[in-house]
Amino acid sequence: MDWDLVVIGEILVELSSPVTLRDSTHFTLSFSGDALNAAAGAAAAGASVGILTRVGDDEFGAAITEYVARLGVDTSLIRSASSPNGLYLIGADPGGQKEFIYLRRGSAASLLSPEDVTAEIVGSARSLLVSGISYAISPSAAAAVLRGAQLMADRGGIVVYDPNYRPKLTTPDAARDAFAKIAPRASVVTPSWPHDAVTLLDGADPQAAARAVLAAGASVAVITLGENGLLLAEGDKITHYPAFHAPIVVDATGCGDILAGTLTARLALGDDLDLAIRLGMAAAALAVGHRGGTTRLATAAEVWRHLERAADGRSPAGGQVPQPAPAPATAHSTFDKHASPQPD
Ligand code: KDG
Fold this sequence. Notes:
Blueprint: E1 3-8, E2 12-16, E3 28-32, H1 34-44, E4 49-56, H2 61-70, E5 78-81, E6 87-91, E7 99-103, H3 119-123, E8 125-131, H4 132-136, H5 139-154, E9 158-162, H6 172-182, E10 188-189, H7 195-200, H8 206-215, E11 220-224, E12 230-234, E13 237-241, H9 255-268, H10 273-287, H11 300-311
Parallel strand pairs: 1-4, 1-8, 2-6, 4-5, 8-9, 9-10, 10-11
Antiparallel strand pairs: 2-3, 6-7, 11-12, 12-13
The structure holds 2-keto-3-deoxygluconate.
């Protein structure tokens, strides 16, 4: 099997509430986690995507695998483990940060290890998406993420790294250490401003954060700015992309993951960076219209329509709408700046 994209990370049982956790009495059960959100976004964007993870053989195991398949994500890279699946509760916090409660210590996915990330798997994929969450769930998962990023960088494929700093999962020092190890192997790094960037990067503003990502060794920095859009930095050039209009705003959970998944998918399918970014932003703007990370993703056609509306001036952002590139026959190497990857 060949994949446009392989995502490494944890699938979580998700219990979400429309009100703050303190006031919650009813929760909606679904499955999520940044890796699954991104993989689902990539599948919706037209990519063949596999999720490399471990799923536990508890009461949720079979339902998780069925759900992944329903999202159009290939399940053949899911390994089983006799540990419980990780779970998180999420409540709404209209005024600020999302609230998470995790029950994931010792979870099935935390048993991921470098042996799971074979050269054969990475060699069959055009791109790899890893995150600071996948790295933080256990030392063996961290080693798996690093091995994947190194193998993909060595072959000149696309490595996208979303730092996704989660203070309940890791410490600032450990997150900075992860950043220093993964960023040099990455083609594109997508920290959020201010949440990720202030903790992980020296930089007084988003432009400085973008330069710090490039100084760490990544080829491209994408600093996401929430409702202010994003900054794209490559070489000496920094470009601001205004945010797309979000027609319905319900819950921002996972919209950064949808951006990262769509962006990676479209790069792997051969789109240029500008188009891949704008498709990612359009998909993310539509993703805030539903609760949870994966409950209802926009289809590729809906994302294109949103991009076109923006280009016609019917909603903010966008520009000319170029046609999508056909999928390349081999891994494309826009970002093969990995001749001498950094050691661990
Ligand atoms: O980006 C959204 C994720 O944070 C959410 O789906 C849960 O994966 C998750 C995590 O570890 O926080």
